[in-house]
Structure formats: structure tokens, C-alpha cells
């Protein structure tokens, strides 16, 4: 009886262990040992002609992970059996696919059929950050690509720039991320651009947003006057570098998106202290950012024999 119980619990333990997704940093050590250097090389090359290359890539990884986990689903275009996630408002005119294609091509040359598109986004993210002054973290690998997309999941799950802290926390909470993850990952807005349409309701002269610096608002109003599709810097101080200026900007009411500024300007929220901590210590921010990127990268990946390794990141095999 006792030995049956022991055997039973051992068996259950093994089953639980087996069904839990296991990513690891050494996944491609035998099958594609240069994977990280190859990805880094293509990202570096892209940055030479496009200051936003890294920003585009890390945003793709975020939008991938928040919808059914980090499974490469954001990359799929409309095709037989797939209604693309690119039809969701949060993905409207999202970019970076050409760079992903270039990375995929380089990897197919070196080790055909081995590296998933989901892992490409995770690796591209760390290099996008570390190549422009940000931290490096040990990327977990071994994700596989899903054979379907989830448009409704993208519509419901991606946060919008018009949400308050409660709503942002709720959406991060759904995928297992907490307030520290929310504040740290929002720090990715230390580089890249946003179209005016995502913040111009904060520029209304007849109902001024008093969490937006008045002279900055005047500047933005002028810059946005010609078109709501004008792209402006998310971080007006150091637009293309990865640093903690995003947080010092928030402390001076220089957050561009409403969803940025609310992290600091909502009294009583735990996010306020976290913004102050990251503003006060770039090292703290860098350490937390790496950990939160690992947390985000761990959102329900496909592993083992699940899904596939796509040949073309935009299409099912
Ligand atoms: C907290 C909730 C978030 C909201 C509401 C949000 C919203 C936005 C919006 C509206 C834009 C501008 C898009 C455009 O004009 O095309 C943007 C850009 C960007 N987002 Fe976020 N974001 C959030 C979190 C994140 C996270 C977690 C990351 C990455 C870890 C990220 C990385 C970026 C980057 C790098 C850009 C610039 C992209 C480029 O220049 O092409 N964002 N975000
Ligand atoms: C994909 O196809 C659906 C109809 O099946 C359409 O509503 C949607 O706009 C298309 N998405 C894109 C990104 O073209
Ligand atoms: C996407 O781009 C097209 C043309 O480049 C533009 O007409 C459209 O307004 C854009 N959509 C959004 C939501 O920005
Ligand atoms: C600006 O704010 C006023 C007052 O709240 C509002 O009536 C008006 O519709 C707003 N204008 C725009 C363009 O949003």
C-alpha cells in the first residue's frame, strides 16, 4: 500500500513535470550553435539604416506573447485556415516583418528548419535592447510556432494607450504578469515612436490634461497638426537609446501615451513607487527589465512536438 502510494505520487509528479513547458537557454547549442550571433548580426545591420528596427522587433514579441502565449502567431498573415491577428486595432500597421524575414533567411541558411519564429522574436528582443545601451539577459529558448492565430484574443488581450492603471494591471494579470512587470516592460517606450492618434486626445485645449507638461503639449500639438499618422518619439530626451529616461520623463509629466503617464500620476497605485525606483536607479531598471522579459517570454509557449518550426514566419508550413 505504502509503495503504491509512493509510486502513484512519483507518477503524478512526472506527469506534471512533463506537461509543464520547459524552455532553456541552451536549447540550440547542438542544433544551431550560432543562433544568437546570427540574430544579433541581422538586427545590427537593420539598425544601420533604421533607428526603429529594434523597437519594432521587441514590440512584435510583446504582441506575440500577449495573445495565446509566445507562439509566433502575430506574424501570420491571412491565409487558408488563418484569420490574421493583424486585423486587431492594437496591431494596426505594426511593422518589423521584413527584419524578421531577414533573420529567418539567415537562420535557414545556417541551420534549416531548426529555429522557431517565436524564438526569433525572443532573441531579436534581447539584441534590440543590448545593441543600443540596454541590458542583456539570458534568453530562454525552445518555443514552437502555432498553426493558428487568434484575432479575438488580440482584440481583447492587447492593452490600449487609453487605459487606466487598473485596466493595464488587469490585462497584464491575465498573462501572469504583475505591477513590477507592467512598469518595467513599459520602459521599452524608452525608444521607438507613436502615431499622434494614440495620444492626441491628451492635447485638447478646451480640456487640458494636467498630467502632461504644458509646453510639451504645445510642442506636440504643433507636431501633430498636419496628420494624426505622424510618428513622434516615445522618449523625447533620448529617442533611440535604451536607458531609464522613460521614468524620469514620467516624473516631469513628459510621458507621451496616457498609459505611460498613469503609471506615475495615479495616486495610491503601487506603480508610482516602482516608477520612482527605476527613475532613481538605472541598474535596478535594467535588472528588472531582463527578469520581466524572461517572465513575458515564458507565457504559455508551445514545446516538444507541439506546433511546428515555420519555414516562412508569415505562413504555415
Ligand atoms: C503597457 C501597455 C502598453 C501600451 C498601451 C502600449 C501602446 C503602444 C502604442 C500605442 C504604441 C505606438 C504604436 C504606433 O503608433 O504604431 C507603442 C509603441 C511601442 N511599444 Fe508599446 N505599449 C505597451 C507596452 C509595451 C511593452 C510591454 C513593450 C515591450 C516590452 C512595448 C514596446 C513598444 C515599442 C518598442 C514601441 C515603438 C515601436 C516602433 O517604433 O515601431 N510596449 N506602444
Ligand atoms: C483577414 O481576412 C478577414 C476576413 O476573412 C478580414 O476581415 C481581415 O480584415 C483580414 N485581415 C487583414 C490583416 O488583412
Ligand atoms: C494604416 O496605414 C494606412 C495607409 O498607410 C492608413 O490609411 C491607415 O489610416 C492606417 N491605419 C491606422 C489605424 O493607423
Ligand atoms: C475637446 O474637449 C471638449 C470639452 O471636453 C469636447 O467637447 C471636444 O469634443 C473635444 N475635442 C476633441 C477634438 O476631442
From TrEMBL:
Its EC number is 1.11.1.7. InterPro entries: Haem_peroxidase, Haem_peroxidase_sf, Peroxidase_pln, Peroxidases_AS, Peroxidases_heam-ligand_BS, Secretory_peroxidase. Ca(2+) 2 binds at residues 190, 235, 238, 243. GO terms for molecular function: heme binding; lactoperoxidase activity; metal ion binding. Heme b binds at residue 189. It is found in: Secreted. Binds 2 calcium ions per subunit. CDD domains: secretory_peroxidase. It catalyses: 2 a phenolic donor + H2O2 = 2 a phenolic radical donor + 2 H2O. Gene3D superfamilies: 1.10.520.10, Peroxidase, domain 2. Ca(2+) 1 binds at residues 64, 67, 69, 71, 73, 85. The keyword Disulfide bond applies. Its cofactor is Ca(2+); heme b. Removal of H(2)O(2), oxidation of toxic reductants, biosynthesis and degradation of lignin, suberization, auxin catabolism, response to environmental stresses such as wounding, pathogen attack and oxidative stress. These functions might be dependent on each isozyme/isoform in each plant tissue. PANTHER family: PEROXIDASE 58, PEROXIDASE 72-RELATED. This is Peroxidase. The gene is LOC111483917.
Amino acid at each position: 500500500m505504502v509503495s503504491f502510494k509512493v509510486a502513484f505520487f512519483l507518477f503524478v509528479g512526472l506527469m506534471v513535470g512533463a506537461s509543464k513547458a520547459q524552455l532553456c537557454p541552451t536549447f540550440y547549442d547542438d542544433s544551431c550553435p550560432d543562433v544568437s550571433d546570427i540574430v544579433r548580426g541581422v538586427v545590427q545591420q537593420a539598425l544601420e539604416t533604421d533607428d526603429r528596427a529594434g523597437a519594432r522587433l521587441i514590440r512584435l514579441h510583446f504582441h506575440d506573447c500577449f495573445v495565446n502565449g509566445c507562439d509566433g502567431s502575430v506574424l501570420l498573415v491571412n491565409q487558408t485556415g488563418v484569420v490574421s491577428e493583424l486585423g486587431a486595432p492594437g496591431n494596426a500597421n505594426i511593422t518589423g516583418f521584413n527584419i524578421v524575414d531577414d533573420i529567418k533567411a539567415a537562420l535557414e541558411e545556417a541551420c534549416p528548419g531548426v529555429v522557431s519564429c517565436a524564438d526569433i522574436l525572443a532573441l531579436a528582443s534581447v539584441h534590440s535592447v543590448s545593441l543600443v545601451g540596454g541590458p542583456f539577459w539570458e534568453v530562454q529558448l525552445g518555443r514552437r510556432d502555432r498553426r493558428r492565430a487568434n484575432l479575438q484574443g488580440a482584440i481583447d488581450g492587447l492593452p490600449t494607450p487609453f487605459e487606466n492603471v487598473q485596466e493595464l494591471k488587469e490585462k497584464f494579470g491575465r498573462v501572469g504578469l504583475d505591477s513590477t512587470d507592467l512598469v518595467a516592460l513599459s520602459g521599452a517606450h524608452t525608444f521607438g515612436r507613436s502615431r499622434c492618434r494614440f495620444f492626441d486626445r491628451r492635447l485638447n485645449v478646451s480640456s487640458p490634461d494636467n498630467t502632461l507638461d504644458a509646453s510639451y503639449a504645445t510642442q506636440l500639438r504643433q507636431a501633430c497638426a498636419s496628420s494624426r499618422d505622424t510618428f513622434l518619439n516615445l522618449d523625447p530626451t533620448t529617442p533611440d537609446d535604451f536607458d531609464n529616461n522613460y521614468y524620469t520623463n514620467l516624473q516631469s509629466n513628459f510621458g507621451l501615451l496616457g498609459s505611460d503617464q498613469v503609471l506615475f500620476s495615479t495616486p495610491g497605485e503601487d506603480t508610482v513607487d516602482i516608477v520612482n525606483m527605476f527613475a532613481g536607479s538605472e541598474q535596478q531598471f535594467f535588472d528588472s527589465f531582463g527578469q520581466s522579459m524572461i517572465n513575458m517570454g515564458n507565457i504559455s509557449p508551445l514545446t516538444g512536438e507541439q506546433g511546428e518550426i515555420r519555414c516562412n514566419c508569415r505562413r504555415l508550413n
